[in-house]
Amino acid sequence: MYAALQTIDRIGPVLPGVIERLRGMRVVHADAAGVVGGLKELMERIGKMEGEVQNWEAGVGRVEASKAEVQGRVLGVAEKVEEVVKGLETRVSQLPQ
Predict the structure, then answer these.
(1) What share of the chain is helix, strand, coil (3-state, %, to 5)?
(2) The domain containing residue 21 runs over which residues?
(3) How far apart are CA 65 and CA 89, in angstroms?
């Protein structure tokens, strides 16, 4: 014990500052742990949102494909109606007056 007394006397003046820094570091480490937890939660949310965006993009793609298909059908029907109307006009024009 007497041998350690000389070492204790030498580091005695520095100890209050070291202890205060350790207390400050405890707060910093606790805050860092909170940030890590929040970051982990944020990354999970982003992952879920990415999945939702992919689902929306797939849905929009299906709607656009359906729209193009319906548009093609409508144009086909319009052409047939136009042919029928022209045929009727021709037949009406050939009727005796």
Answers:
(1) 90, 0, 10
(2) 2-93
(3) 36
Total of domains in the chain: 1
Q: What is the dihedral of CA 53, 55, 56, 61, to 10 degrees?
A: 130
- Alpha carbons 35 and 23: distance in angstroms, whole number: 19
User: CA–CA separation, 39 vs 19, rounded Å?
Assistant: 30
Average of per-residue pLDDT across 33-41: 92
Q: What is the mean pLDDT of residues 33-42?
A: 93
Tokens representing residue 30 in the block: 């606790």
pLDDT (tens digit per residue) in 15-36? 889 899 999 999 999 999 999 9
